Amino acid sequence: MGSFKFINVAIIVAMLVPSISAVDYLVGDDAGWTVGFDYQTWAQDKMFFVGDRLVFNYPAGVHNVFKVNGTDFRQCTTPVGAVPLTSGNDVITLATPGRKWYLCGVSNHCSIGQKLSLYVMTVQIAWSPISPPSPAPSPFPAYI
Questions:
Q1: The domain containing residue 66 runs over which residues?
Q2: What are the tens digits of pLDDT across the range 91-139?
Q3: Considering its fold, how many domains does the chain have in total?
Q4: Vertex 100, ends 96 and 105: CA angle to 5°?
Q5: 112 to each of 10, 71, 88, 116, how far by Cα in Å?
Q6: β-pairing, 115-121 with 98-103?
Q7: Which of 33, 79, 92, 95 has a CA that sits 20 to 30 A from residue 53's CA?
Q8: Half-sphere exposure of 44 (CA within 13 A, CB side)
Q9: DSSP-assigned states of every residue in 62-100
């Protein structure tokens, strides 16, 4: 009886083990990080989790990436003293859950749409079908 309870607990734990495979999201897909692209539409059908990575690809020197708060995002302003990412292949690991905001601080790029808002969820649960254990053979012979 004790081993049956252990098997049930093991099955439940296996179903609740978080997935450890992070996903890399190329922001804007093939368009990359640029003006004239709708990043909100791009993000709306995606599920972002802690550990996932955003990859911002763009020609170095043409754009940049700032992580900002909601107010700066709405007003297209960059935080005083903040240092932008400028490599042209910037990778940001989503380390905490919650709302995240990013924008390009070059010229009027943000005001014409080069900004991204998304929500990061805490953990991705890996749900995999697990067959229940086979019933133990009866200790009594079957009589017909």
A1: 23-121
A2: 999 999 999 999 999 999 999 999 999 999 997 555 555 555 555 555 5
A3: 1
A4: 130
A5: 52, 17, 20, 12
A6: antiparallel
A7: 79
A8: 4
A9: TB-BEEE-HHHHHHT-PPTTPPPB-SSEEEEE--S-EEE
